[in-house]
Design goal:
With about 140 residues, the protein is of the alpha+beta class. The protein is built from two helices and nine strands; from the N terminus they run βββββαββββα. It starts with a strand and ends in a 13-residue tail after the last helix.
Length: about 140
């Protein structure tokens, strides 16, 4: 497990694979880099949560993305969160509720590295999300 501070740039371009029929088997991703923004699990394995950040009951999936910036925005909007580079441990499918071609879901993912966002990056991303009406209830957008 690697912990790094500040912005991390990945040398590979982000692929855009939007298709509801996309289903990728683990270990067949080539140079694809997957990201997740959220709380780091002590086990190092991301698993489905009983309650989603939106307040809806969990749906049995872990949400991942090929877009580092999208994951960083999620990390910035939840107290105690990290930007994590992950490896899916199950088949990956397109997120059926997302209009983004970079949003996917799987059953489990292993955290390879985690990154702490700078204070300036967190504040910038929170300000952007607030302008788009992202809910601030429960202090989600504020440091604790």
């Amino acid at each position: 497990m690697t912990v790094a501070k500040g912005r991390h740039e990945h040398p590979h371009p982000t692929p855009h694979l939007r298709s509801p029929a996309v289903s990728l088997q683990p270990g067949r991703f080539g140079a694809m880099t997957w990201w997740h923004g959220g709380r780091y699990p002590q086990s190092g394995i991301l698993a489905p949560q009983p309650m989603m950040r939106s307040g809806r009951p969990g749906d049995g999936f872990v949400y991942i993305t090929t877009d580092r910036d999208l994951a960083a925005t999620y990390a910035a909007t939840l107290r105690g969160s990290w930007l994590m580079e992950v490896e899916p441990l199950s088949a990956v499918e397109a997120d059926p509720e997302s209009m983004l071609d970079t949003s996917f879901r799987c059953l489990y993912a292993k955290v390879l590295r985690r990154y702490e966002l700078s204070r300036a990056e967190r504040e910038h991303r929170r300000a952007v999300m607030s302008r788009f009406g992202y809910p601030e209830e429960n202090g989600s957008l504020h440091e604790g």
